[in-house]
Amino acid sequence: MRVLGVDPGLTRCGLGVVDGTPGGPLTVTAAGVLRTPADAEIGHRLLLIERGIERWLDEHQPEAVAVERVSSRYNVRTVMGTAQASAVAILCAARRGLPVTWHTSSEVKAAVIGSGGAGKAQVGATVTRLLRLDAPPEPADALALAICHIWRAPALNRLQQAHAVARPAPARARLRKDTIR
């Protein structure tokens, strides 16, 4: 499975592509950071992020996208920028029909390190070891997201299937003529 991990941010949007299977070896395919100028208009910054993510999707052809779920522990301005960058990544994946899964920072740390409260240095060291790299990668968080998804995807799929069987989908509502399709 090839997964694009997205650590969203308006100034720095981390991207990492990892190939692997649960319990099998992991390989980093690409890692990098999309940067936007802090003094540019928000629309222009989001457009730069969209173009960058589209290039990564074209180049690396992931099967799934894992995005860090926005946390409300930051100030509102930071949360807004992170949420906007996250939405761009989700939109890019949706255009291609790619499944998107959100993982909180603590879920990623718990899956990859074993402790949801681990620090950035520990994330970097663990990702370096798991991917058999010589030095901590930048961005380690985006790679950790991709690793978390590879390891958790089978369990998440089984859980979704169990929910679908236990609770049938509601009948689809009729669309009004003025509804956007």
UniProtKB/TrEMBL annotation:
It is found in: Cytoplasm. It is an enzyme of class 3 (hydrolase). Keywords: Cytoplasm, DNA damage, DNA recombination, DNA repair, DNA-binding, Endonuclease, Hydrolase, Magnesium, Metal-binding, Nuclease. It comes from Streptomyces hirsutus. CDD domains: RuvC (cd16962). SUPFAM superfamilies: Ribonuclease H-like (SSF53098). Its EC number is 3.1.21.10. This is Crossover junction endodeoxyribonuclease RuvC. Homodimer which binds Holliday junction (HJ) DNA. The HJ becomes 2-fold symmetrical on binding to RuvC with unstacked arms; it has a different conformation from HJ DNA in complex with RuvA. In the full resolvosome a probable DNA-RuvA(4)-RuvB(12)-RuvC(2) complex forms which resolves the HJ. Binds 2 Mg(2+) ion per subunit. Belongs to the RuvC family. The keyword Cell membrane does not apply. Its cofactor is Mg(2+). The keyword 4Fe-4S does not apply. It catalyses: Endonucleolytic cleavage at a junction such as a reciprocal single-stranded crossover between two homologous DNA duplexes (Holliday junction). The RuvA-RuvB-RuvC complex processes Holliday junction (HJ) DNA during genetic recombination and DNA repair. Endonuclease that resolves HJ intermediates. Cleaves cruciform DNA by making single-stranded nicks across the HJ at symmetrical positions within the homologous arms, yielding a 5'-phosphate and a 3'-hydroxyl group; requires a central core of homology in the junction. The consensus cleavage sequence is 5'-(A/T)TT(C/G)-3'. Cleavage occurs on the 3'-side of the TT dinucleotide at the point of strand exchange. Mg(2+) 1 binds at D7. Mg(2+) 2 binds at E68. Coiled coil: none annotated. It comes from the Bacteria. The active site is at D7, E68. Its main location: cytoplasm.
